[in-house]
Amino acid sequence: TLKQEDIRINGHAIECRINAEDPETFMPSPGRIERFHSPGGPGVRVDTHIYGGYTVPPYYDSMIGKLITHGEDRRTALARMCGALQEVLVEGIKTNVPLQRDIMNDEAFQRGGANIHYLEKKLGL
Predict the structure, then answer these.
(1) Model's pTM, two decimal places?
(2) Which of 33, 36, 75, 125 would staple 120 via disulfide (CB 3.0–4.6 Å)?
(3) Alpha-carbon distance 123 to 116, whole Å?
(4) Nearest-5° Cα angle at 113, 108 to 115
């Protein structure tokens, strides 16, 4: 049995939830995925059920995948996430990938001072 004192912190991880939605309006974007390319490499993990030819139904949870990166520190995990977000490709529907790219490249986010109001402030909501 694992105890709390047996658990050791090992590096830093960042997760981006990929949603089938318009990144400007946050409205759902159901439809057929024409092409899909999953990123990869050291410290990159993708959990998804989609593939080229998959149809995202109109009545669903908009999350179509999780993109997770890990590194020995925040800077490394962030660099891996920026690379993975450049590599991921979902054609045929709108996703929040462009917004995720923008967030990961934002200096305020990179400094690590983001809080629960970060996104509404960034988007002017």
Answers:
(1) 0.90
(2) 125
(3) 13
(4) 105
Q: Determine the distance from the C-alpha atom of residue 113 to the mean position of all C-alpha atoms in its chain, rounded to a whole number.
A: 19
- Res 15 pLDDT > 90: yes
Joined tokens for residue 58: 């109109």
The pLDDT tens digits of the residues spanning 29-62 come to 999 999 999 999 999 999 999 999 999 999 878 9
**Helix, strand, or coil (residue 86):** helix
- For the chain, domains (ranges, CATH) are 8-123 (3.30.470.20)
Residue 18 phi/psi, 5° resolution? -90, 120
Q: Rounded to whole angstroms, what are the CA distances from 53 to 35, 40, 73?
A: 7, 21, 37
Q: Which DSSP helix (H) or strand (E) runs through 119? A: helix 118-123
CA angle at 9 for the pair 18 and 102, rounded to the nearest 5°: 30
Residue with tokens 């990144």: 23
